[in-house]
Design brief:
mainly alpha; Arc Repressor Mutant, subunit A; two-stranded parallel sheet; two-stranded antiparallel sheet
Length: about 100
């Protein structure tokens, strides 16, 4: 774990049934949210490193989920008890508390 990128280290702290956003990760690490997205796209440790638990700040899923597309990401999140209403996750209920 020592050699993991800091973004991946943060992902390992997100429990099943919770999500965070690209912006929240970026804010914690001083990175642009788009840069966070590029790092997640290069994740070679999925699903052990749970990049599927990162969503957009409006609660929706980004279109570029690298491991099967947005439908696959949604199915994984739903299997972890994350609920969607009108294609969005309620960040107040499922988002990590700061």
């Amino acid at each position: 774990m020592k050699d993991l990128h800091p973004v991946y280290k943060l992902l390992l702290r997100i429990p099943k049934g919770k999500v965070t956003t690209y912006g929240a990760i970026g804010k914690q690490l001083g990175l642009n949210p788009r840069h966070v997205g590029r790092i997640l796209h290069l994740n070679t440790g999925a699903p052990k490193i749970p990049c599927h638990r990162v969503i957009k700040s409006d609660g929706s899923i980004a279109s570029g989920y690298a491991f099967g597309g947005p439908d696959k990401q949604r199915k994984i999140l739903e299997s972890e008890s994350v609920k969607f209403v009108k294609n969005k996750v309620d960040l107040k209920k499922y988002g990590l508390k700061s």
